[in-house]
Amino acid sequence: MGRRQTIHIPGVQHSAPIPYGARVGNVIYSSAIQGINADTGELSDDVYEQARQCFRNMHTFLGIAGATPDDIVRLTCFLADLGDRQALNEPWLALFPDENDRPSRHTSKYEPPPGGMKIQIEVVAVVE
């Protein structure tokens, strides 16, 4: 096995042949984390539920990678409609309520894939 460990979330897959993320040493990078429910395989039409599910999938991803949200140093968010920013802010503030203890974050508009996906997130984490 090489020094790179690929990370997969059971029940949630990309349509492309890529892993959900990778870890090299103590650094973890995710691919785009989607709001697909890992138990049902379904994607809600509601952007708020997609955002909450993205954060649930992020927790699962981090756990599989051996990390926690405290290890996140960067969160990148992609919204199909920047007017949906509040849907992203709710789980963000629930996870990081202390304004002095939050990772960096960037949000940008993107052209979502077909199928109703409205939000995706990517994380970079460093485990000590």
Please, could you describe this protein's structure?
With 128 residues, the chain is of the alpha+beta class. It has a single domain (4-126), classed as RutC-like (60s Ribosomal Protein L30, Chain: A, 2-Layer Sandwich), CATH 3.30.1330. It contains 2 helices and 7 strands, in the order ββββαβαββ. Strands 1, 2, 3, 4, 5, 6 and 7 form a 7-stranded mixed sheet that branches. The longest helix is centred in the middle third of the chain and has 19 residues, at 47-65. It is globular, with a radius of gyration of 14 Å. The two termini are 22 Å apart.
Oligomer state of the chains in this structure: single chain
Instruction: Describe the main β-sheet briefly.
Output: 7 strands, mixed
- Give the C-alpha Rg: 14 Å
Mean pLDDT across all amino acids: 93
Classify the helix fraction into a percent range. Answer: 10-25%
CATH superfamily: RutC-like
Named at the architecture level, the CATH assignment is 2-Layer Sandwich
Number of domains: 1
Described by the principal axes of the CA atoms, the overall outline is globular
**Helix/strand structural class:** alpha+beta
For the terminal residues, how far apart are their CA atoms? Answer: 22 Å
Q: Counting H and I runs of at least 4 residues, what is the number of helices?
A: 2
Q: Helix and strand string, N-terminal first?
A: EEEEHEHEE
What is the class in the CATH system?
A: Alpha Beta
Secondary structure tally: strands: 7
Which fold name is given in CATH as the topology? 60s Ribosomal Protein L30, Chain: A
Spans with pLDDT under 50 lasting ≥5 residues?
Answer: none
Strand content: 25-35%
